[in-house]
Amino acid sequence: MFKLKQIDNFPEIRDKLDLAQLIEQSEDVCLCHAATIFGISKPEAKRQIQELILVVLPGFTDRQKV
After folding, report:
1. Which listed residue, 5, 18, 34, 43, has the most CB atoms within 10 A of its CB?
2. Is the torsion defined by CA of 42, 47, 53, 58 positive or negative?
């Protein structure tokens, strides 16, 4: 694994790591909001969202899960 100083030498890697962390945090926040709004658990919210994605966005699904 890169040390932080090494990552700073490669901004494209640093940017991708930042983006990956942001997406992960955003997903967690969205799941919490969905679970709260609909009064369901976070895993159930995730399952329902994934199900919706399979129906609405077939071109963007994870091919390994389908």
Report:
1. 34
2. positive
In a domain, 2, yes or no: no
Token pair recorded at residue 56: 């609405």
What pLDDT digit, counting tens, does each position of 41-51 carry?
Answer: 888 888 888 88
Buried/exposed 14-26: b ≥16 CB within 10 Å, e otherwise: eeeeeeeeeeeee
Residue range(s) defining the domain that contains residue 30:
8-60
**Sign of the dihedral through C-alpha 36, 38, 40, 43:** negative
Place of tokens 């901004």: 11
Q: Is the pTM of this model over 0.90?
A: no
Report yes or no on 41 lying in a domain: yes
